[in-house]
Amino acid sequence: MEKLTELELECFQLRHGDGRADRCVDWAVECLRLDQEGDDLDIVLLASARGIDEVLPLAEAIIGRYRGDARLEEQFLAGKYIVELRAAYLAGRESVQSLDAKLTRLYPALGYPDWLVMLSRNCEYATDVPDFEPPFEDEFHYIASLWAQAQSLAAFEREYSRETSNRQ
Fold first, then answer.
1. Which of 93, 106, 112, 132 has the most CB atoms around it within 10 Å of its CB?
2. What integer is the mean pLDDT of 109-126?
3. 145-166: b or e for each residue (b if 16 or more CB lie within 10 Å)?
4. Is the pLDDT at 1 greater than 50, yes or no?
5. Measured between alpha carbons, how far is 68 from 12 in angstroms, rounded to an integer?
6. Is there a contact between 85 and 136 (Cβ–Cβ < 8 Å)?
7. Which helix (H) or strand (E) holds 18?
8. Which helix (H) or strand (E) holds 85?
9. How far apart are the C-alpha atoms of 49 and 61, rounded to whole Å?
10. Rounded Cα distance, 124 and 153, in Å
11. pTM, whole model, 2 decimals?
12. How many Å apart are CA 114 and CA 66, to the nearest integer?
């Protein structure tokens, strides 16, 4: 169960339309391989599940059972997702257009968090105005760098500066 955070991150992405169900299955298979499932039938079932409709409820049940009230915050999971998206962008697997679609879904789903305002706005503008690409990339670097270091939402919020974002 050491890697429960990986499952939680993948479930977050599945809920927001960008995860891969096979990664959750792979997580369960690895638990079985390491003999970490104990008597948890949901892990066994997850290892053979197919498609989001089977995978997501099983993965959510597992997370709920082992995390309980200590589940990771949605904004924390979103921040770690932003780190992954930036790596994909730098590797050429994401574009400003594909990121805009993802941020457009994510921003309202999280209740419009302050730290996502400028990133979402600059990304949207960069899809139409090339001059907005550098400010978008600066903000993307800033936000992803903070989230890469943060171990919690509170830790991120201690470091985040809206003034810095406004200057991007």
1. 106
2. 95
3. ebbeebeebeebeeebeeeebe
4. no
5. 16
6. no
7. none
8. helix 74-90
9. 14
10. 25
11. 0.88
12. 30
